[in-house]
Design brief:
The structure is a single chain. The chain has about 150 residues and is of the alpha+beta class. The protein has one domain: At1g16640 B3 domain (Beta Barrel), CATH 2.40.330.10. It has 5 helices and 7 strands, in the order αβαβαβββαββα. It has a 7-stranded mixed beta sheet with strand order 1-6-7-3-4-5-2. β4 and β5 form a beta hairpin. The longest helix has 9 residues. It is globular, with a radius of gyration of 16 Å. It comes from Corchorus olitorius. One of its GO terms (molecular function) is DNA binding. Its main location: nucleus. Pfam families: At2g31720-like.
């Protein structure tokens, strides 16, 4: 994780920082109509919920407001919920997602590759807040440029 993202998370009080997944951005992730970023659970490298918490979240169709450190390092709040997408369970950021796309035009592009990291922010006498960081790590190689080189 780049130092500037780690510092931003630590300034929020974030702990238990874990890489959740690598995510390729597709047209549907940027579409104003879809207005969401999907994260298929079967592609997770590390989970942020316990198995019981995840089952309850999925079963009860819960929704949770989470912090999101955007690629531009702005901290926003988005809604996270669970959906069934193409027969697979997924967590989805929605609600403010279109604004996050607008805030990050240089990084949130089709075929960009991101790491999604999770973290927790402890709170006194209450459950901790869940947060995520969205970090661009590259782009899917263009097949035409691969052929030319």
């Amino acid at each position: 994780m780049p130092e500037n993202f780690r510092k931003c998370i630590e300034e929020l009080g974030g702990i238990d920082i874990n890489l959740v997944m690598h995510k390729v951005i597709y047209d549907t992730d940027l579409s104003k109509t879809h207005s969401r970023l999907s994260m298929t659970i079967k592609k997770f490298l590390n989970k942020f919920f316990s198995d019981d918490e995840e089952r309850k979240f999925m079963r009860d169709k819960e929704s949770k407001e989470v912090k999101l450190v955007e690629p531009c390092l702005r901290v926003s709040k988005v809604n996270m919920t669970s959906w069934l997408i193409g027969g697979s369970d997924a967590f989805v950021f929605n609600n403010q997602w279109n604004q996050i796309v607008v805030n990050n035009p240089d990084t949130l592009k089709t075929m960009a590759i991101f790491q999604i990291w999770s973290f927790w922010v402890p709170r006194q006498l209450e459950k901790p807040d869940l947060g995520f960081a969205l970090i661009k790590v590259g782009d899917v190689p263009d097949k035409e440029s691969d052929v030319k080189s």
